[in-house]
Design a protein that fits this description.
Distance between the termini: 23 Å
Largest sheet: none
Number of strands: 0
Radius of gyration: 23 Å
CATH topology of the largest domain: Serine Threonine Protein Phosphatase 5, Tetratricopeptide repeat
Mean pLDDT: 91
CATH superfamily of the largest domain: Tetratricopeptide repeat domain
Strand content: under 5%
CATH architecture of the largest domain: Alpha Horseshoe
Number of domains: 2
Helix content: over 70%
């Protein structure tokens, strides 16, 4: 029932009902409905069909199974694309993400996934553009730290050393930290060395990125 609390409130408001209206229909107190919506407690499972009936929806949608399935679908897309990346089949990884973006055009993980693939392929300018678009949308701190570290080297490769240094100075104290990245940027790396750093960052352990 991961999404039940937020969905109860969402569907109630869509039907222009008050907590008192829902409580009266179920024969319970408005305080109970309020606790459900705040996630402090959950309705007995026997109430779910009645709640779905009130809101003219299904039990699956009410408890968020659609959201859970969508999350599983996106995870499997990333899993497939990363497998392609790791075996060097960047074209298939790129196509996987481009197809996914037709369905999930504003999902930061998909945008950054495509950006990471293009970075590995050497399509520097488009990778930069996508990272700059996707990073402000992401709420995954591990994902943001990894992609920002990769973006530092993409800026460097594109001849934007000032942007690379500025972003590196803002990196957090993590594996992709400013203490690690900034000295590398200031060394005057070759394109081959830059590409190796991008590959190391993007194809690291990958845990928590997607």
């Amino acid at each position: 029932m991961l999404h039940l609390s937020e969905n109860l409130k969402k569907y109630r408001l869509l039907k222009n009902l008050t907590q008192e209206d829902v409580a009266e229909y179920l024969g319970i107190t408005a305080q109970s409905v309020s606790k459900w919506e705040r996630g402090e407690s959950y309705p007995d499972i026997t109430f779910l069909p009645a709640l779905a009936n009130i809101f003219e929806t299904s039990v699956d949608l009410l408890i968020g199974m659609d959201t859970i399935r969508a999350e599983e679908t996106r995870y499997n897309i990333h899993k497939k694309a990363v497998a392609y990346q790791r075996c060097g089949d960047y074209n298939s990884a790129e196509q996987t993400y481009r197809d996914a973006l037709l369905i999930y055009p504003n999902k930061p993980g998909m945008i950054l996934g495509l950006a990471s693939t293009l970075a590995l392929k050497g399509n520097t300018n488009e990778a930069i553009e996508l990272m700059e678009r996707g990073l402000p949308l992401s709420s995954n701190e591990k994902q943001k730290a990894t992609m920002r570290a990769a973006l530092c080297f993409l800026y460097l490769k594109a001849g934007r050393e000032d942007s690379a240094n500025r972003l590196a100075s803002e990196l957090p104290h993590t594996r992709e930290s400013r203490e690690v990245i900034q000295p590398l940027i200031q060394q005057g790396l070759s394109d081959i060395e830059i590409d190796e750093n991008i590959k190391t960052i993007i194809l690291g352990d990958g845990k928590g990125i997607w």
